Amino acid sequence: MIINKRIMIESIIVSILIFVFSVWIKIIQGAINTQKHVPDLIDSYSSANYLQEQVSFGVVYSNGYNWAIIPLGIAIFISLILLYYGIRVMINRWIKKEK
Asked: In angstroms, rounded to a whole number, what is the distance separating the alpha carbons of residues 99 and 80?
């Protein structure tokens, strides 16, 4: 199998752009949500009394899926590269067949 280097580089660049675009969307969405959120200080203070008067005992468990986020992101990124590369190769073959 011969790998077309130009299409592979194009696939990587497009995947990086899609990834950066999706991260920027999340950043902008978080900034908008932060600006729109106005905490109610009076009601929040009344619930803080409970925290000062009573002590809770127990165990705090951390989420076990946190370690899987990085490999999942890498797998999605590689899948995006391969998907774009496959589509581009099929389009190139279709165009060459038409000629």
From this structure: 29
C-alpha–C-alpha distance, residues 31 and 29, integer Å: 5
- Would you list the domain boundaries of the chain? 1-25+73-99
Neighbour tally for 57: CB within 10 Å:
4
Neighbouring C-beta atoms of residue 15, cutoff 10 Å: 20
4 Cβ contact partners less than 8 Å away, ≥ 6 residues apart: 89, 92
> What would the pLDDT profile of 2-48 be if each residue is shown by its tens digit?
788 888 899 999 999 999 999 999 999 999 998 888 777 666 666 66
Q: Reduced to 3 states, what is the DSSP secondary structure of residue 99? A: coil
* Confidence (pTM): 0.61
Instruction: Look at residues 74, 95, 88, 76 and name the one whose alpha carbon lies nearest to residue 9.
Output: 88
